[in-house]
Amino acid sequence: MTRIPEQDRDIIENEIYLPMVLTILNRDLHVFGQSPFKMKRPYLDLVEETMRMVQKDLKETRMYLRKENIKVSEIKRDEAFTMYMFLYKGYEEHHNYFNPRLRNKVEELMTYYLFKRYHAQSK
Predict the structure, then answer these.
(1) What InterPro entries does this protein map onto (predicted)?
(2) Nearest one of 89, 82, 94 to 65, comparing CA atoms
(3) CA 71 to each of CA 37, 54, 57, 66, 86: distance values in angstroms, whole numbers, following the listed order
């Protein structure tokens, strides 16, 4: 049983997912830069702007975690699972994440940052 409230757990999971999103966007930026697109500037601008938004959200996440004295660290990884340790208000919890679930959540976040955040802002 976890002692971490859902709202804090969501913020903690952002500390896991957002760096992965940045890693993928950084690779994509490199690929777009090397690709033979006739006009690659719009693609590069889109990825760079998306990276800025992810970095902004990651900064806010890390500030909250620091303020609340919450720590997250990866402790073990294999082909199927990645285990993280959360230090939350004096309690240590270990959580296993199924790697395909991590990948799917990162893909969902990329879709949000690349497209859906624009729709959310216009409403």
Answers:
(1) YhjD-like
(2) 89
(3) 42, 20, 17, 8, 6
Helix axes 99-111, 6-34, angle to 10 degrees: 70
For Cα atoms 32, 37, 43, give the angle at the middle one, nearest 5 degrees: 50
Model confidence pLDDT, tens digit, residues 67-97: 999 999 999 999 999 999 999 988 999 999 9
Q: Do 69 and 92 touch, CB atoms closer than 8 A?
A: no
Higher-confidence position of 89 and 98: 98
First to last CA, the chain: 38
pTM of the predicted protein model: 0.90
